[in-house]
Amino acid sequence: MSSYLILIVAGARPNFMKIAPIIRALERHRDAFAWRLVHTGQHYDREMSDVFFEELEIPKPHYHLDAGGGTHAQQTAKIMIGFEDVVQKERPQLVMVVGDVNSTLACSIVAKKLQIQVAHVEAGLRSGDLMMPEEINRIVTDAISDYFFVTEPSGVENLRREGKREEQIFFVGHVMIDNLYHQVKKLQEMDDSAFPTATLKSKLGKYGVVTLHRPSNVDNAERLGGIVEALAQVANHIPLIFAVHPRTAQNLDKFGICLPDSIIRTNPLPYMEFLNLWMDAQVILTDSGGIQEESTALGVPCVTLRENTERPITISEGSNVLVGSDPEKIVAAALKVLSHPGQARTKRPALWDGAASDRIVDELAKLIV
Ligand code: UD1
Questions:
Q1: Quick one: which atom of ligand 1 is closest to the CA of 47?
Q2: In what order do the strands lie in the sheet containing 240-243?
Q3: Ligand 1: distance of its center to the CA of 39 in Å?
Q4: Whole-structure pTM value
Q5: What pLDDT digit, counting tens, does each position of 231-248 carry?
Q6: How many CB atoms are closer than 10 A to CB 136?
Q7: What residue ranges define each of the domains in the chain, with the CATH number in brackets?
Q8: What is the pLDDT of residues 285-309, one digit of tens each?
C-alpha cells in the first residue's frame, strides 16, 4: 500500500462529475497513491447525489458528513467540523478539492489549518462578481491552495496575476470533459429508450433545454417572473424542457409563478438522461457553470442567463453567449440561435481532450518523488 494518501472531497452535484475521472486515474496508479473519498452531504437528495454516484461509477464514499442544508455559514461550518475529524484521523499528504462550491471552500480551509497540502482542481477561474457565492469560494480556496490544476488559459493568467508561482500552476485541461466523453461513449452504446424522458424526446423532435438555480436569478420574485415570461415567449417557438433544481422549485412555489404548458417541467434529472436530452437540443438556456463548458465541448448552442462568466473560453472559442436576465435579451438570443440551426461553433478548447485526469495524476506523481 502506498504511503501517499489523498483525501478527495465532493459535496454538490457539480463536483461529482469532476471526481469520477480523477478516481479512475488514481486507480490506474495504485502503486503510487492511496485515496479516500469524503462526501460532505451538501447535496443530499437522491436525484441530486446518489444517482450521480451510480451512473458516474463513483465508489461509495469512505466518509459521509451529512452536512447539507442551512445558511451558507451553517453549511460551511458543519462541513468544516465534520471534515476536521476526518483529516485528523486520516492525516493525508494531500487534500484534493474540486470546483467552487461551499464544500470546496470549507475543506480547503480545514486542511490548510491542519498543515495539509491542498490541490484545487478547476482553479483560477474568476467572474469578478463578488455577489456570486462561488466567486468568494474560488478566491479563498485559491488564496490558500498549494497546487492549481487549471482548465483554461484565463485561469493561468488569473493565478499569475494573484502572485502564484509557475511551479504551482498546471494547465491540464478539464476533468469534467473527461467525464463527459466517457459518458457520451457509454450513452452511444446503450439503449436510451429506457429513460423516462425518451418518449418525450422523440415526440418533440426539436426542443430546447432549461436549467436555472443561481440565487441571483431565482431568489427574487420579479427576476424569476421575468425570466419565466421570457422562457414562455421562447416556448412559443420551440417546446422547452425545464429540469427544475430544488431551490428553483421552492421559489416558483413560494412566489406563485406557474409555467405555461409549452414548458415541460421535470425534476432534476440523472446525468445520462439529462445528457441524452441536451446533446440533441436546439438550444440550452442555463445559468449553470458546468453546462456552459459541456455544451462547448459538444458544440451545442448555449444561452447563459448571467451577466458574466468565469469561463470565458466558452464564449471566445465555444458555443456560449451571455445574455444576463433581461427578458428581451433572453428571447432575442434564443430566437437568433433558433433561426440559424447548426451554426454553433465547435472549436474544442485546448486540452479538453478527455485526458486531464491523467495529466493531474502524472503531475502529482512528479511532485511526490
Ligand atoms: C450549489 C453550489 C452551486 C452549484 C449548485 C449545483 C454553492 C455555493 N453553490 O448550489 O455552485 O452550481 O450547487 O446544484 O456551493 N436542496 C435540496 N436538496 C439537495 C440540495 C439542495 O432540496 O440535495 C435545496 C435546499 O433547500 C438547499 C438549497 O437547495 O438549502 C440550496 O442548496 P445549496 O447546496 O446550498 O446550494 P445550491 O443552490 O444547490
A1: 23
A2: 263-266, 240-243, 208-211, 283-286, 302-304, 320-322
A3: 14
A4: 0.97
A5: 999 999 999 999 999 999
A6: 16
A7: 5-174+352-368 (3.40.50.2000), 194-339 (3.40.50.2000)
A8: 999 999 999 999 999 999 999 999 9
